[in-house]
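In this supplementary section we document a worked example of the pipeline. Step one takes a protein sequence of length 159 as its only input; no multiple sequence alignment statistics are reported here. Step two produces a three-dimensional model, which step three serialises into structure tokens for compact storage. The input and output of this example are shown verbatim.
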Amino acid sequence: MAAYLAGRAAFGNPTDIHTAAQNPLLMESDGFNSDGVACVYKYLKGVASTIAGSVVTYDEAGATTLIAANAIGPVAVAQAAVVASNWGWYMVSGTCLVDTVANSADNGRLGRETTDGKVGDGRAAGDEIYNFVGRTATTAAALAAAQFDRPYVDDVNGA
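The serialised model returned by step three reads:
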């Protein structure tokens, strides 16, 4: 089953990449992931090096930044390779595949780890993402399932 939007009138599907903005930035739409599970998506502007599953923070203007050490702000997950000068849908609530480092535990609290845009359960001090849980153990770096609901990072907690 393909992921799709089902809520508010919105242009595109969660995995679409737009070369010009097709929706208002920060617009939200309800939808369903590829497993048919209800999710919430937010329309944001991309950043270089984004892949499907990249974890980002975003600002009040709808611009994203790959999750970085000591980041602060709301968090979302790219649903496609929405790179710089492109726009697309990012998941802010639901379950999807995220760019995860090796050796992360199932049901582990996730945070930025090793590389900007990637997460794992090592979560250096200040890099824990709240309301963001890994749902698949990893032995190698991979896209792995995570469940989250309006996640955010505040540069306070971590391992």
